[in-house]
């Protein structure tokens, strides 16, 4: 028991406390993010070890040991090069025109080039948020550009552009055309289908349900086979539909069905009160949809939309199975050339395809991430 | 902040549905009725449509500019040269092996030149094989160091194969009927098969000989491997046409025979002008169309065969350019030599 007089008066100084753990700097960041617990530390070490093993291997194959120049596969043989040989980029260089345009006539290749430039212009206009008059950009990309591209690529003899049969198109050109048509058609079509599926009119509703469930119920490869192999047998002899157009229509309808379900997910997340409030304010149903419901619904489903678009872009390689010379198909055909036969060529071809698809899909994903952050700015406040 | 633009979204939705997409803008082109012969259709169209393989070394391969080359491709060009005097008046449609016969049936292609083996079941199934353009057979790729010259010596060997082809069946039959044994390892695709063979998992790699020459080039040291000259199956590659059009069938057959007869008569792409001036033998005169009107019987012009040789060359020219020693493949003529040089290629006389 302490005596009353002692009180709480301290006679000595409290020993100074140790400085707080560092909150800033790379060491602190590593401690909190990489080595917070024993498990974290172990995972970090394992991943670092894997990277230390894989990155030099990849770097050696893709860059350090790669053969950059040459006129035939001989240049990519170790005994000719006089050193270990990695990727045979000379093969890609030798075939680059074929990979880009397929068999598109050499004299007319300015047309695909112009097409790529117009596409890049339209995409930049619509996707760069700081661009002026972006609504016009969208109208250009979705309305004017498809017509322009069609006249440019397929030809329009009336204005002096010789027609080029779609059978001659190939490579990057076909992959871009197929995915653009899929993307450009599936988004609006999907929105309409999603709205139709929620319509009060039974005819519209059941038609949309039937359409969506039919296209979701069949594999894409079956659609493509039907379009390119079976359809000509059913059609009368004097009716032919272009053999690039057939799978294009198939892919567009297929992608639209998936897109419709993604958009419907967004629409269902919007409380009915939003529509009711808009109607109570005197808006028409169309106005309410356009100004109140759709903006909120689409904002929610941006990840789903981008997911579908990336899937669609990669699915376009399936057209190679029905004889359309897409990027993968031309890469395979180029690989068969005996003049370019070397052990490193198949790996090079696949590495090139992987880099190509990764670059495009990753850019799509990053752009979508940026848009999501912009859209979420309101919620962060 | 103006990020979501419902106006633009709706606008573009409407624009899209209203505006014809490239996909729909293509008008359905009317083709001449099927009742007409294939030749008339081809002439009306202005070009031949030829189904080829999407990439087989030496037979149909696109070059760096996307121009198709190869023995099958040359055959189509020869056909176009005979009809139009223009080897470029042909459109090539690469056909997967699954879709090739349907493409021919549906009239999508006029002729299928896609190293297709002529068999009875295919011949009776609504198509014809007018002439054999390449005699192939199932062969074996082995290491030179094994010192093997005959297939018999592969008794008790391990053989690498690709799954899902007739090669496995052929191999089993051939070995069983001779009282020999072998063990087979199969793989999903040619890359894996070749990889297994190269890594020493098998003593031999078996598939069509024409493909083995291409496969050998993909090994690290092509000189260390050899393809046995002996074949254990018959794989006659022939162009295919639809049944019921005898004129077209004749044209396809005689395009090949003209190339053989030209080779036999010594008419080459590089000497045809001189041969035409000198035209010593009646054979040469008949082939070049200087005597008789044989082209007219096919529905073609008198100089139809001369056009083929001038634009594409004779069979030997085409073989040398695509498969022979001048190419990395270095496939020997073998069975594909002319009949008077120990081969099977025999062109009936143009008379």
How do the helices and strands line up, and which of them pair or pack?
The complex is a heterodimer of chains A (about 375) and B (about 350).
Chain A: H1 25-33, H2 38-64, H3 78-81, H4 89-101, H5 110-127, H6 134-154, H7 172-197, H8 202-217, H9 220-234, E1 239-240, H10 245-269, H11 272-280, H12 285-300, H13 302-315, H14 327-335, H15 345-375, H16 377-380
Chain B: H1 6-18, H2 22-25, E1 29-30, H3 38-45, E2 48-52, E3 61-62, E4 68-69, H4 71-84, E5 90-94, H5 100-105, E6 111-112, H6 120-124, E7 127-128, E8 134-136, E9 138-143, E10 157-162, H7 167-177, E11 182-187, H8 190-198, E12 204-208, H9 209-217, E13 225-227, E14 235-237, E15 241-242, H10 246-264, H11 272-278, H12 282-288, H13 294-298, H14 304-311, H15 315-322
Parallel strand pairs in B: 2-5, 2-6, 10-11, 10-12
Antiparallel strand pairs in B: 3-4, 7-15, 8-14, 9-12, 9-13
Essential attributes:
heterodimer, A: 381 residues, mainly alpha, 1% strand, B: 351 residues, alpha/beta, D-Maltodextrin-Binding Protein, domain 2, 3 domains, five-stranded mixed beta sheet, three-stranded parallel beta sheet, 15 helices, 38% helix, globular, disordered N terminus
Explain what you see.
- The complex is a heterodimer of chains A (381) and B (351).
- With 381 residues, chain A is mostly helical.
- In chain A, 67% of the residues lie in helices and 1% in strands.
- Chain A has 16 helices and one strand.
- Chain A has helices spanning 25-33, 38-64, 78-81, 89-101, 110-127, 134-154, 172-197, 202-217, 220-234, 245-269, 272-280, 285-300, 302-315, 327-335, 345-375, 377-380; one strand spanning 239-240.
- Chain A is flat.
- With 351 residues, chain B is of the alpha/beta class.
- Chain B folds into three domains: 6-135, D-Maltodextrin-Binding Protein, domain 2 (3-Layer(aba) Sandwich); 138-233, 3-Layer(aba) Sandwich (D-Maltodextrin-Binding Protein, domain 2), CATH 3.40.190; 245-341, no CATH class.
- Chain B starts with 5 loop residues before the first helix and ends in a 29-residue tail after the last helix.
- The chains are: A mainly alpha (381), B alpha/beta (351).
- The interface between A and B is large, with 90 and 69 residues.
């Amino acid at each position: 028991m302490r005596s009353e007089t002692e009180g709480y008066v301290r006679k000595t100084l409290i020993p100074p406390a140790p400085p707080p753990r560092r909150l800033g700097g790379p060491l602190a960041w590593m401690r909190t993010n990489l080595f917070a617990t024993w498990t974290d530390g172990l995972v970090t070490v394992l991943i670092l070890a894997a990277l230390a093993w894989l990155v030099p291997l990849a770097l050696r194959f893709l860059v350090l040991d790669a053969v950059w120049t040459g006129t035939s596969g001989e240049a990519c043989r170790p005994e000719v090069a006089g050193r270990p040989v990695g990727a045979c980029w000379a093969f890609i260089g030798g075939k680059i025109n074929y990979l880009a345009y397929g068999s598109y006539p050499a004299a007319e290749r300015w047309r695909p080039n112009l097409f790529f430039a117009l596409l890049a212009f339209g995409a930049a206009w619509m996707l760069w948020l700081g661009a002026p008059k972006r609504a016009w950009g969208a109208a250009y990309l979705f309305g004017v550009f498809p017509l322009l591209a069609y006249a440019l690529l397929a030809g329009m003899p009336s204005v002096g552009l010789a027609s080029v049969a779609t059978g001659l198109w190939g490579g990057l050109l076909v992959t871009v055309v197929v995915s653009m048509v899929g993307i450009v058609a599936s988004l609006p079509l999907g929105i309409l289908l999603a709205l139709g599926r929620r319509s009060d009119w039974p005819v519209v509703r059941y038609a949309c349900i039937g359409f969506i469930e039919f296209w979701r119920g069949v594999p894409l490869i079956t659609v493509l086979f039907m379009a390119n192999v079976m359809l000509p047998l059913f059609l009368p002899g004097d009716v032919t539909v272009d053999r690039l157009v057939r799978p294009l229509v198939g892919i567009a309808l297929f992608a639209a069905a998936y897109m419709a379900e993604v958009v419907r997910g967004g629409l269902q997340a919007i409380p009915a009160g939003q529509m009711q409030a808009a109607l109570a304010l005197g808006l028409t149903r169309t106005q309410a949809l356009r100004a109140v419901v759709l903006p909120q619904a689409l904002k929610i489903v941006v990840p789903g939309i981008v997911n579908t678009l990336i899937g669609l872009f990669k699915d376009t390689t399936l057209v190679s199975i029905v004889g359309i010379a897409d990027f993968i198909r031309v890469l395979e055909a180029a690989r068969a050339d005996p003049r370019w036969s070397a052990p490193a060529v198949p790996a090079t071809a696949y590495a090139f395809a992987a880099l190509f698809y990764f670059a495009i899909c990753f850019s799509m994903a990053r752009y979508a991430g940026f848009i999501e952050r912009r859209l979420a700015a309101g919620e962060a406040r | 902040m103006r990020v979501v633009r419902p106006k633009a979204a709706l606008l573009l939705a409407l624009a899209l549905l209203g505006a014809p997409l490239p996909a729909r803008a293509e008008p359905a082109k009317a083709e001449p009725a099927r009742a007409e012969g294939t030749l008339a259709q081809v002439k009306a169209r202005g070009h031949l449509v030829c189904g080829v393989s999407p990439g087989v070394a030496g037979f149909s391969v696109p070059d760096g500019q996307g121009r198709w080359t190869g023995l099958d491709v040359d055959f189509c060009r020869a056909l176009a040269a005979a009809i139009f005097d223009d080897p470029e008046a042909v459109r090539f449609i690469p056909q997967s092996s699954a879709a090739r016969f349907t493409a021919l049936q549906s009239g999508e292609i006029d002729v299928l030149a896609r190293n297709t083996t002529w068999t009875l079941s295919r011949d009776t199934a609504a198509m014809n094989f007018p002439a054999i353009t390449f005699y192939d057979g199932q062969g074996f790729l082995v290491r030179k160091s094994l010192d093997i010259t005959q297939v018999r010596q592969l008794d008790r060997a391990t053989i690498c194969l690709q799954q899902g082809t007739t090669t496995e069946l052929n191999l089993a039959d051939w070995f069983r009927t001779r009282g020999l044994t072998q063990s087979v390892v199969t793989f999903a695709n040619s890359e894996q098969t070749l990889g297994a063979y190269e890594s020493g998992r098998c003593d031999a790699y078996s598939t069509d000989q024409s493909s083995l020459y291409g496969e050998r080039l993909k090994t690290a040291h092509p000189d260390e491997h050899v393809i046995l000259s002996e074949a254990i199956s018959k794989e006659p590659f022939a162009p295919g046409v639809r049944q019921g059009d005898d004129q077209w069938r004749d044209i396809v057959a005689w395009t090949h025979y003209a190339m053989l007869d030209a080779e036999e008569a010594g008419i080459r792409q590089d000497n045809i002008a001189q041969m035409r001036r000198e035209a010593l033998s009646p054979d040469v005169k008949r082939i070049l169309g200087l005597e008789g009107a044989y082209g007219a019987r096919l529905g073609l012009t008198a100089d139809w065969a001369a056009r083929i040789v001038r634009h594409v060359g004779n069979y030997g020219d085409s073989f040398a350019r695509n498969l022979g020693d001048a190419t990395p493949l270095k496939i020997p003529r073998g069975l594909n030599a002319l009949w008077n040089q120990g081969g099977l290629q025999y062109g009936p006389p143009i008379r």
